[in-house]
Automatic annotation (TrEMBL):
Residues 490-516 are annotated as: Disordered. The keyword Chloroplast does not apply. It comes from the Bacteria. InterPro entries: GH, GH13_cat_dom, GlgX_Isoamylase_N_E_set, Glyco_hydro_13_N, Glyco_hydro_b, Glycogen_debranch_GlgX, Ig-like_fold, Ig_E-set. Belongs to the glycosyl hydrolase 13 family. GO terms for biological process: glycogen catabolic process. GO terms for molecular function: amylo-alpha-1,6-glucosidase activity. This is Glycogen debranching protein GlgX. Gene3D superfamilies: Glycosidases (3.20.20.80), Golgi alpha-mannosidase II (2.60.40.1180), Immunoglobulins (2.60.40.10). It comes from Dyadobacter chenwenxiniae. The keyword Ribosomal protein does not apply. Coiled coil: none annotated. Residues 181-587 form the Glycosyl hydrolase family 13 catalytic domain. Keywords: Glycosidase, Hydrolase. The gene is glgX.
């Protein structure tokens, strides 16, 4: 760090004095170099910036205030020798307070550093956190002189050093990836195999009990719901609720302090790093769910916590100066068209990759980031910068390809290099198994990787992140147990959450002791899971669905930091868990279900068989007219293990067993005739969802044999590779 000799002395009182140097404008944030700390803050429209140093989180005001006199290209910077990691700080930013024109500077408000690597605590809600006078008839046009310092958490200088012990990221290819969406607290808080003092934290995620469970289940990529430091809204606290999911970020570089068991002054950073290291040791990737589309400062009536007070116009999409564009339903939208915002996002992504060693990101409401003016632009600056970045472009990039704005549903429209949550897969499979009218062609597309969405852009089946459920909506158990949501605990008279869930309660609403209802529900769970893990694409499983967790019908538990959301391990359905473990192991063992490239539906050279074929119950191949006229109630699918068409890392052809799968969503049993001899000389039953059975040693059947497929069930037959002529 370059130091300039013309020192300044800043005096806060006769008992304290501190040396300062001009410092450097890069990197942004607080950077400790072993001798002191460089502070750099971007603000284009500020007229003055003050760095405030605090002795403790409980301090009512700063004990040293430093006027930053140096500004280079709108970056205000100063170097303070002698400061060490653990130092608490914040900023006060001066400038015009003219909300009607987009300016909301108010030096009475202490501000969180947007580049803070650690934040010392959480918001303590008070009227002082707002830039205007609460209750004033002029609303946000009024000006508050209350000091917010006692109520806002402080930014923390960190020591970036950490011993990774040479552990490298697993670098699992997409076609071998099995995603597991979970919540740091919810996944670990009730697990009695984890020491009580660390439950609900990053340390709990790194605990051997957690690692052991994930390994036995068979997943190899954990997608963590937001861990960026976030805000829990005031209106939720007033209802004695909280923002449990965390989709309300305010610190894009700081792991949230709520999930720290080791401390609040930077210790959470090392605790997070250790979690990643332990996951990587076990061959498990860590994917972060990130929220770069908005911040926790809300609309024009929201608090002034960071960006709004630093330079409102340089961060947000504004309408007529005073108001905020809202493509997210949260009150504001970050303006990814602006260089300052793009730099913030890219710097954050690179930090989490290079310093925290994460393996990729799932972008919440990603369509918002691609909006140039109002329309979603697939050639936007956001995509351009990511594609040319040698670091970010090499990790997993997963889009939630929609927002609430006009034309925001962009499934299948993201560019090469991106995978997407495939909402059309979810909807199709839910409709299929609940017996709704859906066409065979739709089922076929979704099951084989959604070529209609992705193939035309030179993407692969792995662009499709297949899922039946996600954090937002019913759990798998509730999907087969409720026709209607039960969100009364959220305090909004059951008006929140989606009303169209494509769910079916199997004959009785909510919990049931009817054995027929429960048998059907259990079979439906197995059907959904089996469909998910046999489909082409990347499967995503939501934590607890593998053993039937419930949220009591709540399909929007974003504010429920309690037993509604936490995984209750003592209530796990062990039979379903065993089925899930066997199913995932089966899927991983067979490349037929994890193809890198598309089916061609053409005969394989010299073999005379297609790589995939579709059958009617009478054993004949599906004629063209069936695709667009028949509702998808029952069909057979042949996968040719000799038709995988790609090679391993050594360039050698990949072969697998062949499979014949029968999907029967009809409410009655259907008799099927197995394919003729040219497709397989014998067929062994390996999966039967009606019988709750997964085995490599099931009953043998001859070609053309008749088999009865139970109502609403799946049967999978295998023709062993060693019996095939290569």
């Amino acid at each position: 760090m370059k130091k300039v000799s013309n020192n300044n002395v800043v005096k806060e009182s006769e008992h304290s004095k501190i040396l300062v140097y001009p410092g450097e404008p890069y990197p942004l944030g607080a950077t400790w170099d072993g001798e002191g700390v460089n502070f750099a803050l971007y603000s284009e429209n500020a007229t003055g910036v003050e760095l405030c140093l605090f002795e403790s989180q409980e301090s009512l005001r700063e004990h040293i205030k430093i006027e930053i006199k140096e500004a280079s290209h709108h970056v205000w910077h100063v170097y303070v020798p002698g400061l060490k990691p653990g130092q608490l700080y914040g900023y006060r930013v001066h400038g015009p307070y003219e909300p009607a024109y987009g300016f909301r500077f108010n030096p009475n408000k202490l501000l969180i550093d947007p580049y803070a690597k650690s934040v010392s605590g959480t918001i303590q809600w008070h009227d002082a956190l707002f830039g205007y006078v609460i209750g004033d008839e002029n609303e946000d046009l009024s000006f508050s002189e209350l000091d917010s310092a006692p109520y806002i958490p402080k930014s923390v200088v960190i020591d970036p050093t950490f011993d990774w012990e040479g552990v490298q990221p697993p670098e699992i290819p997409y076609h071998d990836t099995i995603l597991y969406e979970t919540h740091v607290k919810g996944f670990t808080f009730l697990n009695k195999e984890i020491p009580e003092e660390i439950r609900g934290t990053y340390a709990a995620m790194a605990h051997p009990a957690t690692i052991k469970y994930l390994k036995e289940l068979g997943v190899n990529a954990v997608e963590l719901m937001p861990v960026h430091h976030f805000i829990s809204d005031r209106h939720l606290k007033e209802r004695e609720l909280t923002n449990y999911w965390g989709y309300n970020s305010i610190g894009f570089f700081a792991p949230d302090v709520r999930y720290s068991s080791s401390g609040t002054h930077g210790q959470q950073v090392n605790e997070f790093k250790n979690m990643v290291k332990e996951m990587h040791k076990a061959g498990i990737e860590v994917i972060l769910d990130v929220v770069y589309n908005h911040t926790g400062e809300g609309n024009h009536m929201g608090p002034t916590l960071s960006f709004r007070g630093i330079d409102n116009m340089s961060y947000y999409r504004l309408m007529d100066g005073r108001y905020y564009m809202d493509y997210t339903g949260t009150g504001n939208t970050l303006n990814a068209r602006l260089p300052s915002v793009l730099r913030l996002i890219m710097d954050s992504l690179r930090y989490w990759i290079t310093e925290m060693h994460v393996d990729g990101f799932r972008f919440d409401l990603a369509s918002t980031l691609a909006r140039e003016l109002h329309e979603v632009d697939r050639l936007s600056a956001f995509f351009d910068i990511i594609h040319q970045d040698p670091i970010i472009s090499q990790v997993k990039l997963i889009a939630e390809p929609w927002d609430i704005g006009y034309d925001g549903y962009q499934v299948g429209k993201f560019p090469m290099g991106w995978a997407e949550w495939n909402g059309r897969y979810r909807d199709c499979m839910r409709d299929f198994w609940r017996g709704a009218d859906s066409m065979l062609a739709e089922f076929a597309e979704r099951f084989t990787g959604s070529s209609d969405l992705y193939k035309g852009e030179y993407r692969r089946p792995t662009a499709s992140i297949n899922f039946i459920t996600a954090h937002d909506g019913f759990t798998l158990n509730d999907l087969v147990s409720y026709n209607a949501k039960r969100n009364f605990a959220n305090g909004e008279d059951n008006n929140d959450g989606d009303d169209h869930n494509r769910s079916w309660n199997c004959g009785s609403e909510g919990p049931s002791d009817n054995p027929e209802v429960m048998e059907l529900r259990n079979k439906q769970k197995r059907n959904f899971l089996t469909t998910l893990f046999l489909s082409q694409g990347v499967p995503m499983l939501v934590a607890g669905d593998e053993w039937g967790r419930t949220q009591g019908g709540n399909n929007n538990a974003y504010c429920q930091d309690n037993e509604i959301s936490w995984l209750d391990w003592e209530k796990a359905d062990q039979d379903l868990l065993t089925f899930s473990q066997k199913l995932i192991a089966f899927s991983k063992a067979h490349r037929s279900f994890r193809r890198r490239d598309w089916f061609r539906g053409l005969p394989i050279k010299g073999k005379g068989l297609e790589d995939i074929a579709w059958f009617l119950p009478d054993g004949s191949e599906m004629p063209e007219e069936n695709w667009n006229h028949d509702y998808a109630k029952s069909l057979g699918i042949f996968l040719n293990g000799k038709g995988i068409r790609h090679v391993n890392k050594k360039g050698e052809p990949i072969y697998d067993d062949s499979f014949y799968m029968i999907f029967n969503a009809h409410f009655e049993p259907v008799e099927y005739k197995l394919p003729p001899k040219k497709y397989g000389t014998e067929w062994r039953k390996v999966i039967d969802t009606s019988a709750n059975c997964i085995t490599e040693d099931g009953q043998l059947f001859e070609p053309d044999a008749l088999v009865t497929v139970d109502s609403r069930s799946i049967i999978v037959f295998k023709h062993a590779l060693e019996q095939q002529k290569i």
